[in-house]
Amino acid sequence: MQVHRRRRVSDREPVVLVVLIQTDSLRWFVAGIDMKSHSYPLLRSEEGNLDEYFGLELDAQISFLRHRLAGVLQRGFDRLYARSMKANSILLAADGAFPTGDTELTERLANHFVQWMISPPVSYVVTTKAFQIQHEGDLSVVAGELSPSVSSLFRKALPSLVSQFAEPEYWELVHRPRRA
């Protein structure tokens, strides 16, 4: 008789859980990055997945984006768990400000996640369009503390992740939730 043992959370491979937000297309991608900078594409949305904040008041915009991205994070945790991985930090990275959003939108959204998630630690950064990071100034921290190790892992893994955006077979597609 074979005995199956559950892996303890502490036995799981530590990774950075990354949510990449494309602000022009209002879509997101979720991936894991291990401690050797290997990337693991997990989930992606369809274009326009985040567009429901258009036309709302600022607090409602933040509420919508907060709830949608919290669901995205939960799905990411679930996919990592299934791969015997655990997030030791979270990085939300947008390639610019949200279009037609209030000027405070990105900062307030970023601060919400940093204050809301106690463990693992969260950082929210904004990069250049298309996530082309070539210089230190191409990555600005909006909220949280981006450790040098997470920054380095992200910079090394990002080109691989960006190249896989156009290859849907690497990502599980999550369709837009249906409105009531």
Describe the protein's topology.
Elements (H helix, E strand, L loop, with lengths): L12 E10 L4 E8 L4 E7 L12 H25 L2 E10 L10 H12 L5 E6 L11 E5 L4 H17 L7 E3 L6
Parallel strand pairs: 1-4, 3-7, 4-5
Antiparallel strand pairs: 1-2, 2-3, 5-6
Task: Tag the structure with descriptive keywords.
180 residues, alpha/beta, seven-stranded mixed sheet, 3 helices, 7 strands, 27% strand, globular
Give your account of this protein's structure.
- It is a single chain.
- With 180 residues, the protein is an alpha/beta fold.
- Helices cover 30% and strands 27% of the residues.
- The protein has helices spanning 58-82, 105-116, 148-164, and strands at residues 13-22, 27-34, 39-45, 85-94, 122-127, 139-143, 172-174.
- It has a seven-stranded mixed beta sheet with strand order 6-5-4-1-2-3-7.
- Strand 4 (85-94), helix 2 (105-116) and strand 5 (122-127) form a beta-alpha-beta unit.
- Helix 1 (58-82) crosses helix 2 (105-116).
- The termini are far apart.
- The mean pLDDT is 91.
